[in-house]
Amino acid sequence: MVERIWRLGAGARLFFLTIVYSGESFKRFHLTMREIYSTGVMSLLIIIVSAFFVGMVLALQGYNTLQKYGSSEAIGVLVSLSLVRELGPVVTALLFAGRAGTAITAEIGLMKTTEQLSAMEMMAVNPIARVVAPRFWAGVISMPILATLFSMVGILGGYIVAVPLIGVDEGAFWSQMQANLDFQSDIVNGIIKSLVFGVACTMIALFEGFDAPPTAEGVSRATTRTVVISSLTVLGLDFVLTSFMLVI
Amino acid sequence: MDRTKIDLWVGIFVALGVAALLGLAMKVGNLTSGKIGETYSVTAAFENVGSLKPHAPVKSAGVAVGRVDSIAFNSKTYEAVVTIKIDKRYNFPKDTFANIYTAGLLGEQYVGLEAGGDEEVLKNGDKIAKTQDAVVLEKMISQFLFSKASESDKDAKPSASTSASDAKHVEAKSTELGDAPF
Fold first, then answer.
1. Are A40 and B10 an interchain contact pair (Cβ–Cβ within 8 Å)?
2. Please, is A105 exposed, middle or buried when counting C-beta atoms within 10 Å of its C-beta (0-12, 13-18, 19+)?
3. A245 domain residue, yes or no
């Protein structure tokens, strides 16, 4: 228990230091750029493919229930609302933790194990400014983009199942969606959620890597913890954010 | 300069993100349809607004002509004051009738405007005098149950009277109440 609290404090300190030293990652933006490539761009495939299938399954399952009440046109509303509000940010964050978070933890953990971080310090290069901050900002920038893409591709997947396959009227599909989705309260809130998840997931991955014991076993454990803690944090944060957004 | 490949990919990534956001805003969200140019606002007082919400459409003859801006409670008159914004292109007579309708049986509620015959038109800040409240389903059901109960009450008590006069009585009672269309 004391160990957990210690780690929480250390994580908060790392977060603070990352913010303080993040000037470097914008001054030398190509560092951040390279990290956006390895976290964001490399996650594109898994995000797009899973979004497509999530959208298709949502449409199929939604149709199954909605047609009992004779309102299968509402399928567009169902798919888009659940994707934009919840599934887009949350599933993206979970996939991100598995795809990019683990990579960050393993990379930094191994840097620490092979004493690359200490070597940087010896050369008067701040490892937080050089290694941690660019990865942090890359994650924070990538997550909303990935989540928006997830929602859009998911809706397209739902469209493909609903309109050509099932035969829902195309006009009703889009117009009901437009009538029931608000840009401010649904789309912008979804993006805010994904920004928060981006901060949380990337920070957890960075801290676990930074905190990993410098052994092979230590790095593997840290990688596992990244996935577990990020997933739980995302789900918990989602509840908190949703309740806040519903109140406002 | 071997960063060009990365630059290209990050460029594609960001462009995809922007395209998805635009797609969400234009095709999925109501950013395009939610905009109704210049508006003027009028108020209307209702005794009961049901489940009318801000941003609900205002329709006339089935065409959306505006949106509900805000709903407030007047503690002097104990009425709900609904402020609605109507598109500048549409003018309505002063004696326009404002109703609260429900789209479909269980759909959302909206404000329906029925034009009157006055020469003068509604201007910014005017108040619509003639309003009709939302239909509250519970009220209708309780009214119906009440009239049914009074019917059966009448049925039970004068058991000695002939059936013909009894039936007449019941009929008279229900028309007197002028009750719901059940």
1. yes
2. buried
3. no
